[in-house]
Design a protein that fits this description.
With 86 residues, this protein is mainly alpha-helical. The protein has helices at 12-20, 30-49, 66-73, and strands at residues 55-56, 61-62. The protein contains three helices and two strands, in the order ααββα.
Length: 86
């Protein structure tokens, strides 16, 4: 059974835009969606490699697994975009 939650008449996209403008609180705050997205990325890496691995959330890296860390890091940025990837 799904947990109880407050329903809103406002759709998700409108709420996001209003929250970005500071007009209201987001229904899906980054404090929740950020870590959740990280879990999804870790699951995709495990599926792609066909195996599990250990992950250190404090460092944001797989422990002793360069192959996983390369997947999580992604491709190098295009020339001229390096400053946005630091």
């Amino acid at each position: 059974e799904a947990p109880e939650y407050e329903r809103s008449g406002e759709n998700h996209y409108r709420n996001f835009l209003r929250a970005a403008r500071g007009e209201c609180a987001a229904h899906s705050p980054f404090s929740v969606t950020g870590p959740l997205s990280q879990i999804f990325c870790l699951g995709v890496a495990a599926q792609r490699l066909g195996r599990g691995f250990k992950f250190d959330p404090a460092s944001g890296k797989a422990i002793g697994d360069d192959e996983v860390n390369m997947l999580l890091r992604g491709p190098e940025p295009r020339k001229g975009w390096e400053e946005y990837y630091s």
